[in-house]
Write a structure and sequence with these properties.
The complex is a heterodimer.
Chain A (H helix, E strand, L loop, with lengths): L1 H6 L4 H38 L15 H10 L11 H17 L18 H8 L2 H12 L3 H32 L4 H6 L11 H14 L11 H4 L9 H25 L18 H20 L7 H28 L2
Helix pairs in contact in A: 2-11, 2-12, 3-11, 4-6, 4-11, 6-7, 7-9, 7-13, 11-12
Chain B lengths: L6 H21 L26 E3 L15 H5 L5 E5 L9 E7 L8 H5 L5 E3 L14 E2 L14 H5 L3
Antiparallel strand pairs in B: 1-4, 2-3, 3-5
The chains are: A mainly alpha, B alpha+beta.
Chain lengths: 336, 161
């Protein structure tokens, strides 16, 4: 895209800048549209799993429910507690929502549709993916509320403990494909998706990803029955909207990442990478949404983990297992 | 008591239990939804002897209302929700000029129905739709009528005495 603008006569700097601007707007629009669908989908899936209907009144099958909810949220009163740390309180929601947008830069939608093919794609994802945790702690601190603080601390502890096995699994994927670039990883899955040889890593990655995005069964930081909304307890109106959107943007991001790393990205089938006439991003979106539905299915099936069980599971269970796993995979890769 | 199981089978069995749980929730897609989309798509099914809104019944042959404003229901009502004023005729020829039934106060005890010597009123099979003001729920005689088809009136099916 930058070359296109350069050909129009703009100097290189402005061409790049304009291209980046348009790409970021496109990503934003893509995510917001998907958010509308995702929130609706979550409520419908939750309803049907619980033998009830989800939203049905607003729009054809309740499709405009999210719009109605967003409208309601905007009209609410924006309350900032008097004793709150204002700067920290106000910035926290943005820190939770924006990284989810940022990581979409390295997700490949198609063979030549990737906003920016960084050669360090996976590392970039890991780096940016830790920002929401800081946002959580800031929200907890800035709220001037003991329980929000507790929840923020729990969120940080959980994120850190599940970061370790996730990085190890990602290292396995990188090792198997030989490149850190996400587009390169998808291209390396041309013959066989990584979910085949790395099935155990796939399961580990899903568990760690669920914990990273604070989703049941690991949603202690926002455990409604225990800490009433956790670290976003003091937030109202559109600030809460940002946290809410952040959660679903993270869900989308994690599904897209799993699709890219394990399920073959924009490929059609393991041994048939392309189907004539149908562009790759159709398969990408289909697989991403299949992952989303899987994660929602998991959410509405399992009870919440207790926080110490959660930590124990990570440090005593997942970390040794993933260390052994990466060792075994390294052997297999070397001698195959 | 607790047999010492191999830790590998332990982990394998617990991992399997996760899948079992997910299978159960998946099966819920096959079960019917329990939501009743009232009142827009489905009507609630009331029991046949449900005591709902009061209905004034008509005579089978003549089509005239049976109520003669004899005040029996007024005297029987424990909550004093009925007010009747009759016209000037005497005896069974008299008809009710105005009949007011205060639904918010009624307790639907059926005493008025049992007291009526002419089987003129019943508490029918549906509830009044909600209103915005209490005054809208105090019903007059013209709101207590059922459309009369001239054929088998539902009064035949529902009067119990």
């Amino acid at each position: 895209m930058a070359q296109y603008f350069q050909q129009l006569g703009l100097p290189a700097f402005w061409a790049e800048g304009l291209a980046l601007l348009i790409i970021s707007i496109l990503i934003l629009v893509f995510i917001l549209l998907n958010l509308l669908i995702l929130i609706w989908l979550e409520r419908k899936v939750a309803g049907h799993i619980q033998c009830r209907l989800g939203p049905v009144r607003v729009g054809p099958i309740g499709l405009f429910q999210t719009v109605a909810d967003a409208f309601k949220l905007i009209l609410k009163e924006d309350i900032i507690p008097t004793a709150a740390d204002k700067w920290v309180f106000i910035v926290a929601p943005f820190l939770v929502f924006l990284p989810a947008l940022l990581v979409f830069i390295v997700i490949p939608f198609d063979r030549n549709i990737i906003p920016m093919d960084l050669s360090l794609g996976v590392l970039f994802v890991l780096a940016i993916g830790t920002f929401p945790t800081i946002g959580g702690i800031m929200a907890g601190w800035g709220s001037n509320n003991k329980y929000a603080m507790l929840a923020g601390m729990r969120a940080a502890a959980q994120a850190i403990s599940y970061e370790v096995p996730m990085v190890l699994v990602l290292a396995t994927v990188v090792m198997w494909s030989g490149t850190l670039s996400t587009q390169g990883i998808v291209k390396a899955q041309e013959g066989m998706w990584f979910v085949g040889p790395l099935i155990f890593g796939f399961i580990l990655f899903i568990i760690c990803a669920l914990a990273e995005i604070n989703r049941t069964p690991f949603d202690i930081p926002e455990a409604e029955s225990e800490l009433v909304s956790g670290y976003h307890i003091e937030y109202s109106s559109i600030r809460f909207g940002f946290f809410f959107m952040g959660e679903y943007a993270h869900l989308l991001f994690v599904s897209a990442l799993t699709t890219t790393l394990f399920l073959g990205g924009w490929h059609f089938l393991p041994f048939k990478p392309e189907l004539a006439g149908i562009p790759g991003w159709v398969w990408f979106l289909a697989k991403t949404y299949a992952m989303v539905i899987l994660l929602m299915w998991i959410r509405w099936t399992f009870p919440r983990s207790r926080v110490d069980t959660l930590m124990k599971f990570s440090w005593k269970g997942l970390v040794p297992v993933s260390l052994v796993y990466i060792l075994v995979m390294a052997f297999i890769k070397t001698f195959s | 008591m607790v047999e010492k199981k191999n830790i590998i089978t332990d982990i394998a069995l617990s991992a399997l239990s996760f899948l079992k749980g997910m299978w159960v929730t998946l099966l819920n897609w096959r079960r019917p939804r329990v939501t009743v989309q009232y009142p827009f798509k489905e009507k609630l099914a009331y029991f046949p002897r449900f005591r709902g809104r009061m209905i004034h019944l008509r005579d089978q042959d003549t089509g005239r209302l049976r109520c003669t404003a004899c005040q029996a229901c007024v005297k029987a009502c424990p909550a004093n929700v009925i007010t009747v004023v009759g016209d000037d005729k005497k005896g069974k020829e008299r008809r009710a000029q105005s009949y007011e039934w205060n639904q918010p106060r009624c307790m639907f005890c059926n005493f008025c129905v049992e007291a009526c010597p002419f089987d003129a009123i019943i508490l029918g099979n549906y509830m009044q739709q909600p209103a915005y003001a209490r005054a809208d729920l105090v019903l007059q005689l013209d709101q207590l009528l059922e459309p009369w088809t001239g054929e088998e009136s539902s009064s035949e099916l529902r009067v119990e005495s």
